[in-house]
Design the sequence.
């Protein structure tokens, strides 16, 4: 298919996914037991204010009408108003989004950078000790509980050794070049924590894909022709394995974002994840809803971009 | 939370037809192969131990009291796992938490497996349903699940039932995805077409041929889904969305965090974390070993 | 290939440029290196600062920050009595007129002097616009204020009220008229700084806000309330952490110097023993209590309330949940800390499950086969308050021992507040942070229709006592009346006051000079304290 069609199809899928997320959120609030007004009015608003909000959000109208109103609001960027802070949810979340993006992107990059060599190592020594070792490490990594890792890192490297700061994304009152240094210092522990939990499954997948690629016919042919193993590994097998691995990043993103919620809570990192934690304790539903939608959109967008990039890179897609 | 499961290469295997007269033979062979894998056996033992703790909880430790005289004691003779900031025995909390965690994991994964398998098999059997199914599964899998779980749990109020339903609701798509690929390949096999000629009772075809064929996949996903359920439930409890009337491992961490004791009482972090790691790791290893044992060595290359 | 390479390089450069724009630049006119001139005091808090208008009801963090900028007329001493701050003297001209004399040496941070005009204008504006909050609540009997000179304000009352001058003096924060008046209604003014920043008369003024992370205040060079005429520290930064646990870690690692919220009881001894950390005691001015909703038919009976009161193990609660840091008030709302009012001769409800059972039986209730009485009461408590959550459990256990069934319903804050307002509970468990003036508190708690009358009591004898006290200007007579009222409250169990709690705050050993004042609102973070705090000088 042509590039244009491919991109269009991916965009379409992305939009459908976003619509799905929006619909799920909409239905949840109105179908779960409890007062649907909870979604827009905190329990201690006055009765008149409540009535006004109910009318404004159309909660007294039929479901379809509400849905349309809801979509309209979203398109205008209105995610509601936070109960606790009385400011638009969009403002609250957009302030925090850059930090979550920084954290997740950094950890994804780290995962790839560390994961690929480890996967290669395991595949190259298949069934031998190194492979078993990497496999065990990978499986253990998959089984880690995020807060546990975070707390241990915080206590050891933050408190006991004092190498890294305890909370926040930057120090206060730092400017210019020093600001970057501060950001990095505050980023290390949360990013490492988030990387550790993804690394396991990424390495295992990388290993698996690479083993398959190594068993492929054209590789056997290359070996029969006497090409050095190293070269085969890196040039042929890795190329093929790399592409699915790239899409895996996109798939991982949904889960990474969830891990970020827990990581940000442990490390007091001021991203959307921590915003969710704070909103949970206050039962600030507009923020919770908005956070989910924003994260869903982010995940979908990144997935789309990754897939489109994959489409450009993979000759098979272009050719077909 | 846990990572998306790397898809095992199931479609390359020879698909088992409905069990023949000596129907246990494939099962027996798998078990024999399994016994030879040390990691797998060890993990199975650990799992069994945890199940024993779950069942025998009342015999092992008294239900944690509302408070106790010795506050924040490190592990020692009187309290093997120490006490928390209200003087409650951490070991009792862990033991009873095992019951809660295992219960939630089993219940949530049972629901997810049943629902997921049904949907997958139905979808494989009826192509039109399949289109809808695969779309819904893809859509759900591409969303960030934990924030959605948080939203639902916050809306519905924290209780064990909520947690089980929430975790199950977001685990079934993964099960469907795994089972579906296997089910699809089975449905295309000639003997299924033959069966369709023989009888119009679709339920019989599904029950007799398709379900047994996907059973190995189900076994794998049971264990994995259950261990993921443990992580999700613990994550929700850690954020304060767990059931406040029962003890769970996540709750121990949550109380340690909110009472300010986490920085000084290392035992409050260590033991629940170890418990979670133990359960999840052993479950994962068992499922991997089972998978290895099922595929005879040297196959598929 | 070349195209892709070029594309990658362009992309990378674009990213770097975008990032480069991210770093904040130092604000113009920032103070010279603060370290050389007093240092930076970093304070940890758990809630974000969202509201900068002190006239509107505020959360703790909001009050701590605005408290450093906007002065109060009166402060409070360790025995609950009012002390001068902005005001140097106060009193009554006659039964319906009060007065304040204020200092003549206070200036706002933009150079304008703080005069009686600001004081009078603030009070009138709050009365006129009624922003929701404690300040408005104190103005019920207030009619108007007038600046009769540059330093004297007189207030007119609608009826005689012997406590209102002190109450308005304490709860009224004074704002600059020239900043607030142009903004229209003070109930809607967000005071978010705008282009010109903030104007305050306290020891520090807010200069920078990093939402969710830190709030920076710079020293105001003219603060006559401390020795030296200005604060010791050059800068104060409030840093936001999500929970006490992270705050404690930050304190121990040296990232913050003071934790503004009080420590959980179990951490007090632990931190006191930690190197580099000091723990300071702060007098509590509030109490924790349970009230029994008399709209519920069973609870309308005195014997039932008494039974419930005797079913609680007060000692266990104070010892275990509060680690011995709580003090019995002898079940009276007149706490020991209020030395003038406290009545030593009273006794606490005795923990006696058998007596509780007998009381229930004498009221006509019969135990069932399981030993339980055929009643059950729903008790609400705030889930986010760990201490109350814990003793709620203990209360439930104690009641069960006496055969009474309690249904615990812990809810999050907003729902809890709503339920409280609507009277949607059988038993209310909670606490008040500041109960500084007995008469005002009794009026609000025990008069029918009072804002915090959670028992829904309407006892003519009690109401008469309170109203008389309100009109009595003779201290001794007033005290006698209040004690009589308190005894009645205790006898009829219109309020079950369980304990008053002293608070503990942790700070780094590198800082000293804090001045402790009662209640979590002031504690070590009151303006005089923060202005007096300084680094411990190096031993040479």
Sequence:
């Amino acid at each position: 298919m042509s590039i244009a069609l491919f991109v269009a199809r991916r965009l379409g899928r992305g939009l459908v996914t976003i619509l799905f997320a929006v619909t799920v959120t909409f239905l949840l609030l109105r179908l779960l037991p409890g007062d649907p007004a909870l979604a827009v009015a905190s329990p201690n608003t006055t009765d008149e204010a409540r009535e006004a909000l109910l009318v404004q959000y159309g909660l007294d109208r039929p479901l379809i009408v509400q849905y349309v109103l809801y979509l309209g609001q979203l398109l205008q960027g209105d995610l509601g108003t936070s109960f606790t802070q009385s400011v638009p949810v969009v403002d609250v979340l957009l302030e925090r989004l850059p930090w979550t993006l920084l954290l997740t992107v950094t950890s994804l990059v780290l995962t790839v950078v560390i994961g690929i060599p480890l996967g290669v190592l395991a595949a190259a020594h298949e069934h031998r000790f190194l492979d078993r070792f990497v496999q065990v490490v990978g499986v253990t990594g998959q089984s880690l509980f995020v807060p546990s890792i975070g707390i241990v890192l915080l206590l050891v490297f933050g408190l006991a050794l004092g190498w890294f700061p305890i909370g926040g994304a930057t120090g206060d009152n730092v400017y210019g070049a020093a600001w970057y240094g501060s950001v990095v210092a505050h980023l290390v522990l949360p990013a490492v924590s988030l990387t550790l939990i993804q690394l396991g499954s990424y390495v295992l997948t990388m290993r698996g894909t690479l083993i398959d690629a190594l068993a492929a016919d054209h590789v056997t042919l290359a070996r029969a022709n006497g090409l050095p193993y190293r070269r085969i590994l890196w040039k042929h097998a890795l190329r093929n394995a790399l592409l699915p691995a790239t899409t895996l990043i996109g798939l991982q993103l949904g889960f990474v974002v969830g891990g970020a919620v827990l990581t940000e809570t442990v490390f007091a990192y001021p991203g959307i994840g921590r915003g969710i934690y704070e909103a949970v304790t206050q039962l600030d539903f507009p923020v919770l809803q908005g956070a989910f939608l924003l994260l869903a959109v982010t995940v979908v967008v990144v997935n789309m971009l990754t897939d489109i990039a994959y489409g450009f890179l993979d000759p098979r897609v272009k050719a077909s | 939370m846990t990572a998306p499961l790397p898809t095992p290469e199931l479609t390359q295997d020879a698909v088992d037809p409905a069990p023949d007269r000596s129907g246990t033979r494939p099962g027996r062979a798998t078990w024999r192969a399994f016994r030879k894998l040390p990691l797998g056996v060890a993990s199975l033992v650990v799992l069994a131990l945890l199940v024993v703790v779950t069942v025998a909880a009342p015999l092992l430790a008294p239900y944690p009291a509302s408070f106790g005289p010795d506050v924040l004691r490190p592990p020692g003779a009187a309290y093997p796992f120490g006490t928390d900031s209200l003087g409650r025995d951490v070991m009792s909390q862990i033991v009873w938490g095992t019951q809660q965690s295992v219960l939630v994991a089993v219940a949530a994964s049972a629901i997810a497996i049943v629902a997921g398998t049904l949907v997958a098999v139905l979808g494989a059997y009826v192509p039109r349903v399949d289109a809808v199914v695969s779309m819904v599964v893809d859509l759900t899998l591409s969303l960030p699940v934990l924030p959605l779980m948080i939203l639902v749990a916050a809306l519905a109020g924290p209780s064990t039932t909520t947690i089980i339903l929430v975790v199950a609701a977001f685990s079934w798509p993964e099960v469907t995805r795994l089972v579906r690929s296997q089910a699809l390949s089975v449905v295309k096999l000639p003997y299924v077409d033959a069966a369709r000629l023989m009888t119009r009772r679709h339920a019989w075809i599904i029950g007799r041929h398709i379900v047994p064929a996907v059973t190995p996949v189900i076994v794998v996903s049971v264990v994995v889904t259950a261990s993921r359920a443990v992580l999700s439930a613990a994550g929700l409890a850690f954020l304060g969305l767990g059931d406040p009337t029962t003890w769970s491992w996540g709750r121990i961490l949550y109380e340690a965090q909110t009472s300010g004791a986490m920085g000084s009482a290392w035992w409050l972090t260590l033991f629940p974390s170890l418990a979670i790691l133990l359960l999840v790791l052993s479950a994962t290893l068992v499922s991997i070993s089972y998978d290895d044992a099922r595929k005879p060595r040297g196959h598929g290359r | 290939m070349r195209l892709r390479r070029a594309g990658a390089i362009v992309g990378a450069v674009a990213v770097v440029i975008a990032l480069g724009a991210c770093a904040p630049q130092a604000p113009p006119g920032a103070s010279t290196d603060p370290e050389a001139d007093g240092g930076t005091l970093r304070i940890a808090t758990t809630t974000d600062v969202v509201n900068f208008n002190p006239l509107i009801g505020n959360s703790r963090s909001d009050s701590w920050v605005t408290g450093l900028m906007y002065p109060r007329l009166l402060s409070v001493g360790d025995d609950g009595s009012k002390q001068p701050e902005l005001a140097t003297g106060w009193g009554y001209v006659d039964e319906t007129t009060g007065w304040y004399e204020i200092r003549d040496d206070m200036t706002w941070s933009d150079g304008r002097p703080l005069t009686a005009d600001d004081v009078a204008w603030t009070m009138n504006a709050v009365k006129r616009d009624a922003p929701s909050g404690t300040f408005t609540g104190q103005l019920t009997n207030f009619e108007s204020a007038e600046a009769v000179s540059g330093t004297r304000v007189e207030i007119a009352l609608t009826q005689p009220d012997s406590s209102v001058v002190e109450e308005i003096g304490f709860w009224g924060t004074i704002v600059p008229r020239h900043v607030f008046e142009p903004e229209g209604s003070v109930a809607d003014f967000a005071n978010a700084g705008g282009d010109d920043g903030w104007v305050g008369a306290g020891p520090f003024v807010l200069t920078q806000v990093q939402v969710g992370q830190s709030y920076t205040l710079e020293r105001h060079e003219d603060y006559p309330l401390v020795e030296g005429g200005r604060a010791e520290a050059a800068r104060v930064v409030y840093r936001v952490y999500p929970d006490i646990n992270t705050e404690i870690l930050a304190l121990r690692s040296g990232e913050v110097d003071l934790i503004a919220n009080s420590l959980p009881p179990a951490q007090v001894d632990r931190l006191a023993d930690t190197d580099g950390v000091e723990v300071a005691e702060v007098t509590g001015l509030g109490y924790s209590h349970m009230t029994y909703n008399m709209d519920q038919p069973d609870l309308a009976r005195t014997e039932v309330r008494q039974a419930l009161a005797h079913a609680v193990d007060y000692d266990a609660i104070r010892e275990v949940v509060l680690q011995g840091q709580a003090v019995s008030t002898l079940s009276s709302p007149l706490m020991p800390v209020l030395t003038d009012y406290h009545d030593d001769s009273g006794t606490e409800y005795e923990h006696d499950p058998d007596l509780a059972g007998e009381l229930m039986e004498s009221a006509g209730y019969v135990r069932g086969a399981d030993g339980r009485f055929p009643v059950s009461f729903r008790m609400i408590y705030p889930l986010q308050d760990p201490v109350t959550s814990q003793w709620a459990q203990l209360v439930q256990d104690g009641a069960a021992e006496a055969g009474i069934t309690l249904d615990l319903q812990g809810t999050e804050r907003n729902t809890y507040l709503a339920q409280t307002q609507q009277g949607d509970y059988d038993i209310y468990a909670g606490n008040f942070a500041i109960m500084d003036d007995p008469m005002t508190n009794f009026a609000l708690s025990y008069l029918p229709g009072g804002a915090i009358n959670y028992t829904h009591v309407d006892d003519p004898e009690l109401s008469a006592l309170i109203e008389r006290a309100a009109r009595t200007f003779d201290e001794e007579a007033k005290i006698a009346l209040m004690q009589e009222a308190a005894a009645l409250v205790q006898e009829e169990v219109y309020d079950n006051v369980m304990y008053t709690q002293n608070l503990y705050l942790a700070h780094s050993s590198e800082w000293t000079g804090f001045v402790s004042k009662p209640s979590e609102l002031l504690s070590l973070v009151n303006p005089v304290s923060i202005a007096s705090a300084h680094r411990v000088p190096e031993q040479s």
